[in-house]
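lol ok so funny story. i was supposed to be doing the assay writeup but got distracted and ended up predicting the structure for this chain instead. priorities right. anyway since i did it might as well share w the group, maybe its usefull for someone
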Amino acid sequence: DRETRDLYRAFWPAETYREDLDILVAGCGTLGAAAFAFLYPQARVVGVDVSTTSLNHEEFLKSKHALHNLTLKQCRLEEIASLGKEFDFISCTGVLHHLADPGVGLRALGTVLRSEGVISVLVYGQYPRAGVYMLQELFALMGLEQKEQDIQTVREMLSVLGPDHPVQPYLRRAAKDLSSPNGLVDTFLHKRDRAYTVSDCLALVEEADLAFQGWEENIFYHADGIGPAPAALRARLEQLEGPPLWQAMELMHCMQAMHR
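and the output, tada:
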């Protein structure tokens, strides 16, 4: 109940609280849709993915936890209108940046969103991933594919990189995710991904004919997040507002490996 109320306050601060939401988990993976259905038992949850393996595991969790409020469908995100449903809340985490045309994907989600609905999106951030893209290019030159022996080659390469390589800060932050083969493949051997700056995120929303409501983690995009700083510097930063401020914080922190 607390999680539901927190979600509601974050995304509909002026609305009367209710629990019977229609929720879409777009690109649900192996557990995303089941997690929403479990946390929000009064909601009607639909999970879609293109992966049969992922959906089979979601079906296992649905049966194990008696998630009667969960429906699962195999569907490309770009074809989401074929469900014939509308939603109050859409979660799309780590999917758009792997599409051939992320703008088309987000616009498709917008077509099934109710007028006061909210889409929560996660995409890669550009600047902290500079070292990642250097290694992606390196591994492409080496002809590596998503095979067990090639994943081992990735591990070996990471182990011999110098301490000043631009990827090192990212490796420290993403150590848990990169401990698994799937994490290594998704980061270094994925066939297609792109990263976003603040400006790119805003352009993506505009391209999809949606309205930008805000960042889920505002502290990274405002001057309050810089900690102790000389008064003159803080005053200069606080003269900025909206997108210029968000861009300045992104360039200063260089921490947003993901934008939410």
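The radius of gyration is 20 Å. Residues 52-64 form the longest helix (13 residues).
back to the writeup now i swear
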